[in-house]
Write a structure and sequence with these properties.
Elements lengths: L3 E3 L11 E3 L9 H8 L9 H6 L9 H26 L8 H34 L10 H20 L5 E2 L13 E2 L1 E9 L3 H10 L8 H8 L21 H6 L4 E6 L3 E9 L9 H6 L7 E13 L2 E12 L2 H33 L4
Antiparallel strand pairs: 1-2, 3-4, 5-9, 6-7, 7-8, 8-9
């Protein structure tokens, strides 16, 4: 079966891509079928296909060109990943660092697809009411096509795989609680202060000091100003240390080594409440279906000369396929905001630690 339809049947004014269905049946994995369904034969240069189809470059919507770029990157990444997997299927994983790079690549591609799709859904939906001609969307038929492509991109971003990866590098206490994970993010900063002062700043910094913290957590979980709900890390008091708020709500203290590392954890997906969860039980959840657990650490390293390296890492492990699907979609929506919060968190710790005593 091979279906090849001109791109103009989907969206007018642009004849650059051709939709391919034949490759879908050649792939065996679900992820390959999904990615194959959304693959377009994207021309490296815009001018040759425009000459061939007698269309002007100016007639091509910038939004559609952006879609082509995203789909082209996803297509090449998809092919490289599955070629690598097929080549190493008969042998043990030869390079853990390479596997982690592949997994991080999928995260970035997934996030890019989701946000490109959301942009398409927004612009297409608005164009259904009134075509946005500055985006070269000149009719409601074109707007419908943009909505279709946007929805397809979002679904593709949600469906891209999230392989399990293992921790690499120097051992840390975080490894004791989540050594294998599907999602993670790492951020670091240099602080001109001793390890002791930096560790004190970690434990004392408040949500008010973390730029954009309240705004981004409100977007994540909107709250009414008059609400009397209990204080959580998503709605922290202004003057209480953010770690104290987290530990008083849904987080537990997994490890604390003064002037070295602090690790906290929580269950982001749970089929039933687990009161009085302790670090030992947090580790044993790996063998129970229906859970996704997350752990966050702050780790210090003395660089000499009065400088300290401050690193924070977040890891998430889903214990079964259903939990993985749920959290994968959630992660690829909140990842940009999550990364920004952690960068601002480190900046707030740095600012507090560097204040003269």
């Amino acid at each position: 079966l091979s279906v090849s339809a001109p791109y103009t049947q989907l969206l007018p004014y642009a004849r650059i891509w051709r939709f391919r269905v034949s490759e879908v049946l050649e792939k065996s994995s679900p992820a390959s079928r999904i990615a194959g369904t959304l693959r377009f034969a994207y021309a490296p240069s815009i001018d040759p296909p425009c000459i061939r189809h007698r269309c002007r470059r100016a007639d091509v919507s910038p939004l559609l060109l952006a879609y082509g770029r995203v789909l082209s990157i996803a297509s090449h990444g998809h092919r490289a990943f599955w070629n690598h997997r097929s080549a190493s299927r008969g042998a043990f994983q030869q390079s853990t660092a390479g596997a982690i790079l592949d997994a991080e690549m999928w995260d970035l591609i997934g996030v890019a697809l989701v946000y490109a799709g959301l942009l398409g859904l927004a612009s297409g939906s608005l164009s259904l009411l009134r075509p946005l001609r500055f985006l070269r969307i000149r009719s409601r038929r074109a707007a419908s096509g943009v909505v279709f492509v946007g929805a397809a991109l979002v679904l593709a971003g949600f469906a891209l795989p999230a392989p399990v990866r293992e921790a690499v590098g120097e051992p840390q206490r975080l490894d004791d609680f989540i050594a294998a994970f599907q999602f993670n993010e790492v951020h670091s900063i240099r602080v001109r202060a001793s390890k002791r002062r930096t560790f004190e700043a970690i434990e004392r910094v408040t949500a008010e000091e973390i730029r954009f913290f309240r705004t981004l957590t409100w977007i994540r979980s909107p709250r009414r100003p008059w609400s009397r709900e209990g204080k959580t890390v998503l709605a922290p008091p202004a003057v209480q240390p953010i770690l104290d708020v987290a530990l008083a709500s849904d987080f537990i203290l997994l490890a604390r080594e003064p002037d070295s590392e602090t690790v906290i954890g929580t269950l982001v997906i749970t089929p039933r409440p687990l009161p009085n969860l302790r670090p030992e039980g947090f580790v044993q959840i790996d063998h129970q279906a229906g859970y996704a657990k997350a752990a966050l650490n702050f780790r210090l390293e003395d660089l000499g000369g009065g400088w300290t390296s401050l690193t924070t890492e977040t890891r998430v492990f889903a214990t079964d396929a259903a939990s993985l699907r749920r959290f994968r979609a959630y992660w690829r929506v909140i990842y940009p905001g999550s990364a920004l919060i952690r960068r601002m968190w480190l900046q707030a710790i740095k600012k507090r630690a560097e204040v003269p005593a």
